[in-house]
């Protein structure tokens, strides 16, 4: 006989599980890989740096050109880790909220909505405060997310993965064109926004990290606290409501956390796409679909992916850099095509 407590445990029991030792092992592997990539990010670049200079720079020395180079790479590495964690986590939450395997801040037009809001505010309102950029970007991301979900929900079948992907892609293209239309006639801002529109972490500084860090902390906490609610949503809205969950509240709070992360990341690093698409799929293969595990793993793997992309962009184009937005697009675009061709389901 099924008891009330059994029913309330149903969201957990229905999940595809991985043995605890497997999850812990992957956790250790992810942490070690991220640590190794952070060391590589500090040591590798257009200038070869000896390990002695790396350790000296980590201790605060900047007496030589090599030590000065390492000192500049440290905030860049930290920013790549933070941006990757934010984008990976927000992508996992968006896929959970919409039960859409194609959901991603870039594909759903959220990143470009934030970009358009920032560019418009700078061009026409004279916005100059970096903190204000973040607030404006979050507002633009929220409006874009609502707009895309509304358009994707029209017609028969509601918000199916394909309809949301098409609506988001069309919205992204339209917003990108509007961004270009705003920036191109303005020579006073075109130069500063040129690289930002591609997406990168090359202009990192401790000041920028300090400005965005409070927003990232809030977004990460909100997303992680939504994990159990997302497990309930995975069973379907009707069953989740039958288990006593407030479906609308869960969806709104989780989406808010994802929008905060997307807006903050876009304001600082530009519209970096595909991290939020690739990372959650990889994490499901490693730890299953339990969001209590998948969300922290998505943050770790997202941080590792963006840090690796930044290292690759610096190494393959020496002495120049390839921005991480280009590298992630080269990785994510084929993966997106693969998911579209392989996925036959309407929801997760």
UniProtKB/TrEMBL annotation:
Per UniProt, which keywords does this protein have?
A: Cell membrane, Membrane, Transmembrane, Transmembrane helix, Transport
Q: Which Gene3D superfamilies match?
A: ABC transporter involved in vitamin B12 uptake, BtuC
Pfam families linked to this entry: FecCD (PF01032)
Top-rank lineage group of the source organism: Bacteria
Record-annotated membrane-spanning stretches: 24-44, 74-94, 106-126, 132-152, 164-184, 209-227, 248-273, 293-312, 324-341
- Does the record bear Protein transport in its keywords? no
Q: How does it sit in the membrane?
A: Multi-pass membrane protein
Task: Name where it's found.
Answer: Cell membrane
Q: Which InterPro entries match?
A: ABC_BtuC-like (IPR037294), ABC_transptr_permease_BtuC (IPR000522)
Member of which family? Belongs to the binding-protein-dependent transport system permease family. FecCD subfamily.
State the name under which the record lists this protein: Iron ABC transporter permease
Q: What is the lineage of its organism?
A: Bacteria, Bacillati, Actinomycetota, Actinomycetes, Streptosporangiales
């Amino acid at each position: 006989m099924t008891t009330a407590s059994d029913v309330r445990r149903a969201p957990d029991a229905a999940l595809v599980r991985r043995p605890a030792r497997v999850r812990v092992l992957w956790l250790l592997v992810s942490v070690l890989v991220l640590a190794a990539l952070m060391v590589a990010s500090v040591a590798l670049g257009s200038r070869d740096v000896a390990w002695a200079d790396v350790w000296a720079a980590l201790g605060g020395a900047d007496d030589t050109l090599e030590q000065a180079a390492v000192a500049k790479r440290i905030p860049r590495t930290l920013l790549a880790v933070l941006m990757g964690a934010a984008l990976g986590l927000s992508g996992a939450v968006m896929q959970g909220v919409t039960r859409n395997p194609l959901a991603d801040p870039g594909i759903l037009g959220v990143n470009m909505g934030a970009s358009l809001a920032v560019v418009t505010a700078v061009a026409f309102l004279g916005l100059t405060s970096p903190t204000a950029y973040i607030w404006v970007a979050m507002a633009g991301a929220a409006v874009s997310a609502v707009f895309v979900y509304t358009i994707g929900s029209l017609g028969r079948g509601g918000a199916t993965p394909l309809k949301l992907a098409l609506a988001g892609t069309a919205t992204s293209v339209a917003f990108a064109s509007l961004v270009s239309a705003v920036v191109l006639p303005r020579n006073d801002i075109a130069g500063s926004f040129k690289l930002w529109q591609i997406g990168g972490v090359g202009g990192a500084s401790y000041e920028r990290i300090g400005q965005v860090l409070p927003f990232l902390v809030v977004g990460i906490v909100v997303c992680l606290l939504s994990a159990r609610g997302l497990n309930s949503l995975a069973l379907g809205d009707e069953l989740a409501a039958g288990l006593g969950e407030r479906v609308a509240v869960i969806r709104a709070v989780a989406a808010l956390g994802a929008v905060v992360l997307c807006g903050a990341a876009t304001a600082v690093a530009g519209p970096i796409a595909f991290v939020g698409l690739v990372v959650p799929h990889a994490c499901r293969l490693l730890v299953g679909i339990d969001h209590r595990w998948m969300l922290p793993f998505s943050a770790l793997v997202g941080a590792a992916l963006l840090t690796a992309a930044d290292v690759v962009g610096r190494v393959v184009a020496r002495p120049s850099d390839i921005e991480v937005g280009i590298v992630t697009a080269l990785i994510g675009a084929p993966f997106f095509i693969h998911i579209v061709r392989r996925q036959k389901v309407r929801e997760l």
